[in-house]
Specification:
alpha/beta, Rossmann fold, eight-stranded mixed sheet, globular, AB_hydrolase_fold, AB_hydrolase_1, AB_hydrolase_sf
Length: about 300
């Protein structure tokens, strides 16, 4: 698979790292925003299927190549960072794709910078996730993210030890491949025998509490005039049958977002919907449809 060029964008507090594929491509580009503890290397499977399309994908503030950037780490700050990435790349307007928490960033970006967003593709994220009855938001975040949060407090004696940690993850391990190994290796910082995951725990803790629709997020989502496509993964973060979004939750939002498109991916989990060949074959055409619509609008 093609490797991105690593670049930086000036943002509040320093430089934010982003990856760029096909910088010389013409036409509407794609801004691809990763999930809560992820990086730009979540996207190569999808990027490879977007033939001839320019793609820029950040490492969000507090993660991977941008992990030294200071807080605050709220969704609006991430949205400002996305504008800075587009500025640095010389991009006026893009189809914006967000996975998991990245979809929430995409929604805030469309709210605050509507002129920069051609359309939104929300991949198993972006719809508010209220905490289950009887759970505090903190408890709900811990229950949902599980090992993704646990590993932030761990150290690893070697690169292989970190790979072994992920190989045991039911949502990742059974689908291991060279691309996932590269993604995992990129996430390590420090020196052996005290290697650790790159994500800043403060950033993850702050963002984990911002996915429930509070702080007028749900209102902002419903007020968007931007075209929206939502794609649901039928299995959860641990490859379990209970997905991040129940069909009932999606149906409720279908009633609220009348003009949005709601699609169901087949036989993927929350990770493999973009980090696997099968998921990418389903998500990439959704993005391509939105790019085709942008092209048609330009011609008209």
């Amino acid at each position: 698979m093609s490797a991105p060029e690593l670049r930086t964008a000036p943002v509040a507090g320093g430089e934010l790292t982003y990856g760029e594929w096909r910088a010389d491509a013409t036409g509407t580009p794609v801004l691809a925003i990763h999930g809560i503890t992820s990086s730009h290397l979540a996207w190569p499977f999808v990027v490879d299927l977007l033939d001839g399309v320019r793609v820029v994908a950040p490492d969000l503030r507090g993660r991977a190549g941008s992990n030294a950037l200071p807080g605050p780490f709220g969704l609006r700050v991430h949205a400002d960072d996305m504008a800075a990435v587009l500025d640095a790349a010389g991009i006026e307007r893009a189809v914006v794709v967000g996975h998991s928490m990245g979809a929430f960033v995409a929604v805030r970006f469309a709210e605050l910078y509507p002129e920069r967003v051609e359309s939104l593709v929300l991949v198993d994220g972006g719809l508010p996730i209220p905490p289950p009855a009887g759970m505090t938001p903190e408890e709900a975040a811990a229950a949902t993210l599980g090992p993704a949060l646990e590993r932030l407090s761990m150290t690893f004696e070697s690169v292989q030890a970190y790979r072994d940690f992920w190989l045991k993850h039911p949502g990742i391990g059974p689908y291991w491949c060279d691309e996932i190994e590269t993604y995992v290796d990129y996430d390590l910082v420090g020196e052996a025998p005290e290697l650790r995951a790159s994500a800043n725990p403060e950033a993850i803790a702050e963002n984990a509490l911002q996915l429930d629709g509070a702080d007028e997020y749900a209102t902002a989502l419903m007020a968007l005039a931007t075209p929206i496509t939502f794609v649901r993964a039928p299995r959860g973060l641990f490859d379990q049958p209970e997905a991040l979004y129940s069909p009932e939750t999606v149906d409720a939002w279908r009633d609220q977002l009348h003009d949005a498109r709601f699609l169901e991916a087949d036989d993927v989990n929350h990770y493999t919907i973009i980090m696997g060949a099968s998921g990418a074959r389903q998500v990439a055409p959704v993005i391509a449809d939105r790019l085709d619509e942008a092209r048609t609008k330009e011609i008209a």
